[in-house]
């Protein structure tokens, strides 16, 4: 990243604000259990659906559990699912995309047509179908969502690899008799990392939304373990008694996804090769 790219980042207040939001979210995901002022699983029948107070800053839920404490730990499973799914999709999708662009014609046809078929279905529909056969939990959700986003990485890696294979240094690698593994890991992969990094940020945001949607429908994180999407789904039935119950997790979820998307958009500009050349 050049000095010019760093100046661009500093001159973008929305980008810097988004970085601060993401830093806070990561901090919550790591240290939320220690920051929680109350036991997030402790039930108190005498303080059900209360508003903000000195004892419970953000109020309580339908079982009298402290909302702030549950919000602080509710991001942990969501982030684990999102990061795990992005890692799975990034590794396998990138390898498939490279194989489709650098491999034989029949292999390219098979991979990319399979990618096109998967991309024709909305991820939420495939996720609903898949989670019906799996036990709900962080690991199963990460695998399901990761598999669903493999085609997105494959498409990006395929397009970027096609551009790299037309470069002169690729002809030099072939002329020297370099092995396929050497070409892929020393010539192709380092030159397609920029679009893959951008795709990773967008996939994290999409995975957070998909996990939240599944938890909202009761097919994601299993209670009493909280997640923001699950809390939003539960809070629908208590809007009249405690409207802030649904507002807090919704606001945090929206801010997190928005921040990730803003960072992804700016990374696309910062990692643009034309900026690196200036």
UniProtKB/TrEMBL annotation:
PROSITE patterns reported for this sequence: ABC_TM1
Keywords on record: Cell membrane, Membrane, Transmembrane, Transmembrane helix, Transport
ABC transmembrane type-1 domain ranges (all copies): 75-264
Record localization: Cell membrane
UniProt main location, coarse: membrane
Membrane topology: Multi-pass membrane protein
Pfam families per UniProt: BPD_transp_1, OppC_N
Top-level lineage group: Bacteria
CC annotations in GO: plasma membrane
Keyword Membrane (UniProt): yes
GO biological process terms held by the UniProt record: transmembrane transport
Similarity comment: family membership: Belongs to the binding-protein-dependent transport system permease family.
Protein name: Glutathione transport system permease protein GsiD
Record organism: Aminobacter aminovorans
């Amino acid at each position: 990243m050049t000095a010019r790219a760093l100046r661009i980042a500093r001159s973008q207040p929305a980008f810097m604000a988004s970085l601060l939001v993401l830093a806070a979210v990561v901090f919550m995901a790591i240290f939320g259990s220690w920051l929680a002022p109350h036991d997030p699983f402790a039930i108190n029948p005498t303080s059900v659906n209360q508003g903000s107070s000195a004892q419970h800053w953000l109020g309580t839920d339908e079982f009298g559990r402290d909302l702030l404490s549950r919000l602080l730990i509710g991001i942990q499973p969501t982030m684990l699912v999102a990061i795990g799914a992005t890692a799975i999709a990034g590794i396998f999708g990138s390898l498939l995309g490279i194989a489709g662009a650098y491999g034989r014609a029949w292999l390219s046809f098979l991979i990319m047509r399979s990618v096109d078929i998967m991309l024709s279905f909305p991820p939420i529909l495939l996720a609903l179908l898949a989670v019906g056969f799996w036990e709900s939990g962080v690991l199963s959700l990460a695998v399901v969502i990761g598999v669903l986003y493999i085609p997105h990485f494959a498409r990006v890696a395929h397009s970027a690899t096609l551009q790299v294979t037309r470069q002169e240094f690729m002809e030099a690698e072939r002329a020297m008799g370099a092995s396929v593994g050497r070409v892929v890991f020393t010539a192709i992969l380092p030159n397609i990392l920029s679009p893959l990094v951008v795709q990773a940020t967008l996939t994290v945001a999409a995975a957070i939304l998909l996990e939240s949607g599944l938890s909202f429908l009761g097919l994601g994180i299993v209670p009493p373990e909280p997640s923001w999407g699950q809390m939003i789904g539960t809070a629908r039935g208590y809007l009249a008694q405690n409207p802030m119950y649904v507002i807090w997790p919704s606001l945090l979820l929206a801010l997190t996804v928005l921040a990730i998307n803003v960072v992804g958009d700016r990374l696309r500009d910062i990692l643009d090769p034309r900026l690196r050349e200036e």
